[in-house]
Amino acid sequence: MMVTVYAVLAVTVDALHALLMVLWVLGLPLLFWHRWPQVTMGYALFAIAFVVVNRVSFYVLDECFLTTINRALWTRAGHGMPDHMGDWFTVRFARLVFGLTPSQRWIKIASEVLILVTAAGMLSVVVWRRRRRDRPAA
Predict the structure, then answer these.
(1) How many CA atoms lie within 13 A of 50 on its CB side?
(2) Which residues of the chain form beta strands (DSSP E)?
(3) Going by C-beta distance under 8 Å and a sequence separation of 6 or more, which residues neighbour residue 96?
(4) Which pairs from 73-76 meet CB under 8 Å and 24+ separation?
(5) How confident is the model at residue 92 (pLDDT cuts 50, 70, 90)?
(6) What Cα–Cα distance (Å) separates residue 64 from each residue in 17, 30, 34, 113?
(7) Structure confidence by residue, pLDDT tens digits, 10-26
(8) Host domain of residue 72
(9) What is the CA angle 43-44-47, rounded to 5?
(10) CB 118, CB 51: distance < 8 Å
(11) Can you tell me the distance from the alpha carbon of 134 to that of 110, in angstroms, rounded to the nearest whole number?
(12) Residue 131 or residue 59, greater confidence
């Protein structure tokens, strides 16, 4: 099988997808631990964008837009998306990293919980910054 530019792009999109998800999950503690306020705010903005794009994508496409792009790239590569890639990226990623094959329903529930954690963390950042700003000078 010949490797095409589209196949390379498809693999690149998958790697980007994995990186974004890992950054989102690993960064969640930053929302509650404010040792570096600028990093926390930067992550908070990233998390908000991640959640909004994710929710809009699932509402419009019933899957992540990166999965849709990936499928189109594999199709354009001339041999369609590999069989093992018919699942959502999150399912494939969990299978690769953890050896688990969660259902798409379980993935939706887990993502909703992570979205809740992200929202709660963002609220804590806002409250923390407001308290810090409104603190009387000693």
Answers:
(1) 25
(2) none
(3) none
(4) 73/6, 73/7, 73/9, 73/10, 73/13, 74/6, 74/7, 74/10, 76/6
(5) low
(6) 9, 24, 30, 17
(7) 888 888 888 888 888 88
(8) 5-134
(9) 85
(10) yes
(11) 36
(12) 59
Distance CA 20, CA 112 (A): 17
CA distance 64 to 57: 5
Q: What is the pLDDT of residues 40-67, one digit of tens each?
A: 888 888 888 888 888 899 889 988 888 8
Question: For residue 108, which amino acid is it?
Answer: K
> What are the structure tokens assigned to 31, written together?
């929302």
* Rounded Cα–Cα distance for residues 66 and 107 (Å): 16
The model carries a pTM of 0.63
Domains held by the chain: number:
1
Lookup result for tokens 């589209």: 6
